[in-house]
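Internal ticket #5521
Category: modeling
Description: The requester needs a full-assembly model to guide mutagenesis choices. All entity lines are attached below as received. Residue total reported by intake: 300.
Assigned to: D.W.
Attached entities:
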Amino acid sequence: MPIAIQDTYPEPAAHCYGCGRLNEFGYQIKTRADRDVTVTEFVPASYHTAFIDSTYGGLIASIIDCHSTGSAAIFAMHADGEEIGSDPSPRFVTAHLEVDYLAPTPLLPMRLVGSALEIKERKVIVGTELLVEGEVTAKGSAVLVRIDQD
Amino acid sequence: MPIAIQDTYPEPAAHCYGCGRLNEFGYQIKTRADRDVTVTEFVPASYHTAFIDSTYGGLIASIIDCHSTGSAAIFAMHADGEEIGSDPSPRFVTAHLEVDYLAPTPLLPMRLVGSALEIKERKVIVGTELLVEGEVTAKGSAVLVRIDQD
């Protein structure tokens, strides 16, 4: 399994509640390259409910958000011919996030698949499909902006 | 202080991780009418970080989401001449959510102010400004759809 981009973030970027490996209370999501897409798997907790049998929309937005920042770093590195885990990873933050909730998302493990819709030097746009049991229940689009790191 | 709309939701709608009064692990946000706008106050936890001194964007999206569903119910009731807390509250779910992150949001108490951008029988559009210490750091827009309740 390829290394997760979040495991390569420098320490100041590793405290995010959604994806920071150093945030012990957070979701600690992991996003990996899979050929020309990116993949994040996440298992919601029993209390991450909207209605009692569906997943909270804010959690869906949260996971899409961090999946998108990680995906942007992966896509930018691939575009520059860099190798995840060997070269320093750039860090992107979210400027704009959109989520379409297409159907109730069952409270089950989710799989997010990210595609690069645009890759520029300082801006990447990531499209995401969120699937549960193979069905797309939500779609995301995020504009990520590259930030300088110390 | 006027009653929070979430305290009037029927039981099946009161388990939401963001705004359900019966979800003991959730955020339990409270949204109240304030003349022609709606207001939600929320205090992030110390671990709701993006970078170490800023608030996680997924949390911001989450709070905007639930603030918007609650606001939609308030705006729909006001449009029908109904009184919050006396008449049964309708329930809205999110079809589309957008967030613009304008600046890093300090990890401090946040205030969300919602406005009705459109009110139709089964669809309400809510615009939200998120302020910390009086400064708008994020803006939201959500399309909410009314659902039938048992």
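Resolution: model delivered.
Comment from assignee: Helices of chain A lie at 57-79.
Ticket closed.
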